[in-house]
Design goal:
Chain lengths: ~300, ~550, ~300
């Protein structure tokens, strides 16, 4: 029951957050200067009115919101004004798999690279290995992605020819992008893992286990890991939000048609419904991942559950 | 040892080895042209687009009455119309359509398709950005503004299936050139109305699988912000002469990514070249860099309704203080031409009057005439640009020139985001703003008509009765020489009053793979893809 | 050893601050970082006051893309020296980095100050008031934590892209949540200590207790986190500049300079390397300093 209440309360919070963000973005974008039909060739007043009416933009904002929300619940996100002929659902359907692919591979790279490095550094603490790896990690954190990305692209794609430098179809540029994205988070995770491993490895129960003759790796996996992984898991929550903003940069540099690109173009084009749609999808993604992270944390550490 | 070292090494070698052939080479073999096309197309509906990139795709999908010649923009190549004729006043035109032109679903292309298309683009409900192109037709403007309710009153009639009559509002001997523009393309009525009302703003008819087109290619796929792919249209009347199997238009916005993609062997052609990389290609005489005359002008608009730009002498001072050669040589570096007038001189024979040139002494004189003893007396004003590196560089250079030559210390540069910029200019909420204009067809009126009082593209508040009169008179003249002379007079008025400050005339700077044959320099850069061939050229 | 009976002075022992400072002094890396950071700040704000540095906006397109240490003659016959070379418009890279540093550092300081003020007050209040109010306030923080702030920032800066102050507020607003959590945690543990009871029994008002007694004692983690927030904020500003949404030209920040450099890496590596190195070293030094402070203020933590 404890767990059930925890899950329910977390779910409730997430839904409230989702509603808030949908509402806030809805009103925010419509209050901005410029509109979706403003273009280089000036459109006469009466035609502009026609277009606004066709898209339902002439009604007062609260009414528009109610209609929008109603459609949203039915799964209809409306038409895109910037990509005439496509509905927001279709644009998102095209872009979401791209972004998810990049995000997940990036996350996988980050974990696969970061955790072992952190553990290795912790196991060899205060040696040159440790200092060297941590300095490398710090470098990864301090240099922006959009500096590392073109450098990597130049090396791996243009000079070595292992990857394509851009485009989506028939191209593996997305893999290069995902790896680049992962590198930054690998650096963060490496530092976190090392710090928390050191914490755990210092504790009495570890010394007891070693004294009992358990091998170092055994200690690592059976005892240290569970306690040490906590900070990394709790980092994953905000990391997701960061992965998304990192994805914007990666998609721009490598020309990948993900949701981030669609969002940025929509903001530029004042494509209200597409902005709302992409923001909703991002919010759902983030809230869902945070929810999962919360659950994992609660499973790892019952104290979290008690705090509710 | 075997498993832990050699196996991964072998895998690695295989992976690396697998990538020896470049995408471009594969595409050349397959006959697919890979083009960088700038940004994502707004739509594939000819009546909803206004950008150059969108028009490129439309020209592959559709064909109009008259089409582009592969190497000479002054030649009118027959398209769906085999031949045409006009009355001596150039106000009544008849187009005789070929009988074997077909849509991509097999239907014949008829004159009714054109009349339907004209009625759709002029329909007020469509709110088409390029409806003004069809104001050439008698009553076209009236129908578009809603004054005329029945399209029957507009000067476009189908006589039978294969004859199209156009009655124009005023003489236009260059009319065949005008109808090459994408706003005059035909559309397939049954398809449009299958998916929604005639002027419904968002329907599925543009999607791959639904779109029916009559050009050399048809739509295969469309991924937003990625690519539009077209393949051969087997029903095209001239399909046997089309060499390409397909074209992929890639929507790469970032010019640096695009250039990297070209170098990486991912595309045959880039839409533009980053300014800082031009010298590299040029200095090594790399034949892949092309720099060709392009009918367009880069200029600044001046708001004549507010100070300090309301003073004509002040505007003259600003214009003559711009060292155009420096901009062209060091900032844009693409072989652009300093603009001594507004309309670029063209092969069609129009020579604009030579007025504008860098003259610091003259500029300073005009500043004094405008009433400013010193440049620092000039009140603060701003140059408004839309956010872009290129515009930024030019604005910074010109700001500096005004500072050095005229001593104007209080001029700022203000960056505005695209939409906000459009609003600012349309609302006349600026002092100086940057602008560019590309010709829609090969005739000086495409550059000069916009400065008439109240034209929607004027956006400076400038109104001059003499200018309006001269333009009106020139429209009534059918004799080219007389017309050009009249237009020259009008342009002289424009260049005297200077509501605009011309900077340079464009060139098209781009990178083209040597595999692409048949891509000749064209004034309007509208390459007919049916004449393009891909041949593997040794590296 | 009798205490003076006329005053109620508490015995002044060795304060936390003094101990921490002593420990910090021993950490040579952290001290070097502190020195470096102070040096950078001084250079960016004071050096332009001397006539040494040329105007960063001076444009000489004919002298573009010169290498470091180059001297050239402009079209007007003026001899120009470029310490770190010139950019594609002939502007001095060195001076652009210095003036850009002013803006980047200003963004760092002000945005961090914004997040600091909101976070500290919010967290301390929640921690002190405790109970259901605390639970509610923290729930709110949890909700906000999950929101994609970056997206809102992008939307706002796309629409109003010329406002530096909007930038400060937006970026600051992204970072205050963690600060609030940290402060609240500290306050919760301090709340039950004796000095708070003493203050309460003296009849001090709640705000006074919060502001004059609790907050000063939370300074340790707050200082550490602040030192780590500044680089995070500067990174955010760099990302926004990359997307074209940060500081607008003709002003420059390190972020926008790096973006220009990254674009032109193939032809002008100096444009990227110089600002990137300065930016990287500054962030490096702040991170080392933060780590050092954390170790100095909490010796029980994961010791190296």
């Amino acid at each position: 029951m404890d767990t059930a209440r925890y899950i329910a309360s977390r779910l409730g919070q997430s839904l409230i957050a989702l509603f808030c963000i949908i509402a806030v973005t809805f009103f925010l974008v419509r209050l901005a200067p410029g509109g979706p039909f403003l273009d280089e060739k000036k459109i006469p007043e009466h035609l502009l009115e026609n277009m606004n009416r066709a898209y339902g933009l002439d009604k007062p904002l609260p009414i528009q919101f109610v209609r929008y929300f109603g459609n949203l619940l039915r799964g209809d996100l409306g038409p895109s004004t910037g990509n005439k002929g496509y509905s927001v659902n279709e644009v998102i359907a095209q872009g979401l798999p791209v972004s998810l692919g990049i995000g997940f591979v990036g996350l996988a790279v980050a974990l696969a690279l970061g955790i072992p490095i952190g553990v290795f550094a912790a196991a060899n603490r205060n040696t040159w290995i440790d200092h060297g790896l941590m300095a490398l990690a710090l470098l990864g954190i301090c240099l922006p992605t959009f500096v590392i990305a073109p450098l990597l692209a130049d090396l791996l794609a243009i000079r070595l020819g292992w990857f394509d430098v851009a485009l989506w179809e028939g191209s593996n540029a997305w893999l290069l992008g995902a790896i680049t994205l992962g590198l930054f988070y690998a650096a963060y995770i490496a530092r976190l893992t090392r710090a928390s491993m050191l914490d755990v490895l210092n504790q009495d129960f570890i010394r007891t286990a070693r004294a009992k003759g358990v091998s170092f790796l055994g200690v690592l996996f059976h005892h240290a890991f569970r306690g040490g992984i906590g900070p990394v898991v709790s980092f994953l929550g905000p990391a997701l939000a960061g992965l998304i903003s990192g994805a914007f940069v990666i998609e721009t540099i490598f020309g990948l048609p993900g949701l981030g690109q669609h969002f940025i173009k929509a903001a530029t084009n004042r494509d209200y419904l597409l902005i709302n749609g992409t923001v909703t999808v991002f919010a759902v993604l983030i809230l869902f991942m945070n929810f999962v992270v919360d659950l994992v944390q609660a499973w790892l550490d019952p104290r979290v559950r008690a705090r509710g | 040892m075997l498993r832990r070292v050699y196996l991964p090494l072998a895998l690695f070698a295989v992976l690396v080895g697998c990538r020896t052939e470049r995408k471009v080479d594969v595409a050349t073999r397959d006959g697919i042209l890979l083009l960088g096309n700038g940004g994502e197309p707004r739509a594939l509906d000819p009546h909803l687009v206004s950008a150059v990139g969108d028009a490129n795709i439309l020209r592959a999908l559709f064909e109009g009455l008259v089409t582009n010649h592969p190497s000479d923009d002054t030649i009118h190549e027959p398209g769906v119309a085999e031949r045409w004729e006009s009355n001596p006043e150039a106000t009544e035109w008849t187009f005789y359509l070929r009988r074997d032109a077909r849509w991509s679903n097999g239907d014949p292309v008829t004159a009714h398709d054109f009349v339907y298309a004209f009625s759709r683009i002029l329909d007020p409900g469509m709110a088409s950005p390029y409806a003004t192109m069809l104001y050439f037709l008698k009553n076209g403007e009236a129908y578009n503004s809603g004054k005329l309710k029945d399209f029957g009153g507009v000067g476009a009639k189908a006589v039978g299936d294969y004859e199209l009559h156009c009655s124009l509002a005023y003489p236009a001997p260059y009319f065949p050139d005008v109808v090459k523009h994408t706003s005059w393309l035909p559309v397939h009525q049954a398809t449009i109305e299958k998916f929604g009302a005639k002027t419904a703003p968002f329907t599925d008819w543009q999607k791959p699988g639904n779109l029916v087109s009559n050009g050399a290619f048809q739509l295969e796929s469309w991924r937003i912000n990625a690519s539009v792919k077209v393949v051969r249209n087997p029903y095209y009347w001239d399909a046997k002469n089309v060499s390409l199997r397909g074209i992929n238009f890639y929507a790469i916005d970032n010019v640096f990514t695009e250039e990297a993609a070209f170098r990486n062997g991912l595309i045959h052609y880039t839409y533009s070249v980053p300014q800082n990389l031009i010298p590299r290609y040029r200095d090594s005489h790399d034949p892949r860099l092309r720099s060709e005359t392009y009918a367009g002008v880069y200029f600044f608009r001046c708001n004549v309704t507010r100070a300090p730009t309301d003073n004509a002498d002040f505007r003259r001072a600003l214009a003559y203080a711009i060292d155009q050669q420096v901009i062209v040589d060091y900032v844009t570096m693409g072989g652009q031409v300093p603009a001594f007038a507004f309309t670029p001189p063209s092969e069609a024979g129009y020579q604009p009057p030579s007025v504008i040139a860098y003259d610091p002494d003259k500029a300073r004189e005009y500043l004094k005439k405008a009433g400013y003893e010193k440049g620092s007396d000039v009140p603060e004003f701003a140059i408004i640009i839309n956010t872009s590196e290129a515009h930024q560089s030019i604005a910074v250079a010109i700001q500096d020139m005004w500072k050095k030559t005229l001593g104007i210390t209080k001029v700022k540069i203000e960056n505005q985001e695209w939409k906000v910029f459009q609003q600012t200019v349309q609302d006349l909420n600026y002092s100086v703003s940057r602008a560019g204009w590309i010709a829609d067809y090969v005739d000086p009126t495409t550059f000069l008509n916009m400065w008439v009082t109240g034209d929607s593209n004027n956006e400076t508040g400038w109104s001059n009765a003499t200018y309006d009169g001269l333009i009106r008179e020139s429209a009534q003249l059918a004799d080219p020489a007389a017309r050009y002379a009249k237009l020259r007079e009008a342009e002289a008025v424009l260049l005297d009053e200077l509501p605009v400050l011309p900077v340079y005339w464009y060139t098209r700077v781009y990178l083209l793979s040597p595999d692409v044959q048949g891509w000749d320099p064209l004034l309007l850069d509208n390459h007919p893809y049916k004449h393009i061939r891909l041949e593997s050229v040794g590296r | 050893m009798a205490r003076s009976s006329s005053t109620t002075e508490l015995i002044q022992g060795s304060s936390l601050g003094r101990d921490a400072w002593r420990r910090l002094r021993k950490n040579w890396l952290a001290m070097a970082s502190l020195g470096f950071f102070v040096f950078i700040v001084l250079v960016c704000y004071l050096v332009p006051l001397l006539p040494v540095v040329p105007d960063p906006d001076r444009t000489l397109p004919e002298l573009q893309s010169l290498p470091a240490g180059a001297t050239a003659t402009s079209r007007e016959g003026e001899s120009v020296f470029y310490l770190l070379g010139s950019d594609p418009l002939g502007r001095d890279i060195f001076s652009r980095i210095i003036y850009g540093g002013r803006i980047s550092l200003m963004v760092g300081f002000i945005a961090t100050a914004v997040s600091l003020s909101i976070g500290v007050v919010y967290g301390a209040t929640a921690g002190y008031l405790g109970g259901r109010i605390d639970a509610f306030m923290m729930r709110f923080v949890d909700i906000l934590y999950a929101l994609p702030f970056m997206i809102i920032v992008i939307i706002l800066t796309t629409f109003f892209n010329n406002s530096l102050w909007l930038l400060f507020v937006c970026i600051g607003a992204v970072e205050w949540l963690t600060m609030a959590r940290i402060v609240r945690g500290q306050v919760l543990s301090l709340k039950n200590q004796e000095f708070v009871d003493a203050a309460r029994s003296l009849g001090l008002s709640q705000p006074r207790i919060i502001f004059r007694h609790l907050i000063p004692n939370t300074l340790g983690p707050v200082i550490v986190y602040t030192t780590l927030t500044v680089p995070a904020v500067m990174r955010l500003e760099a990302i926004l500049s990359f997307l074209g949404l940060g500081v607008q030209p003709p002003s420059a920040s390190w972020g926008s300079l790096i973006k220009e450099g990254a674009d032109r890496m193939a032809s002008d590596p100096g444009l990227l390397i110089y600002p990137a190195v300065v930016f990287g070293l500054t962030l490096f030094s702040l991170n080392f300093l933060g780590d050092g402070l954390r170790d100095a203020l909490d010796p029980k933590g994961s010791k190296d």
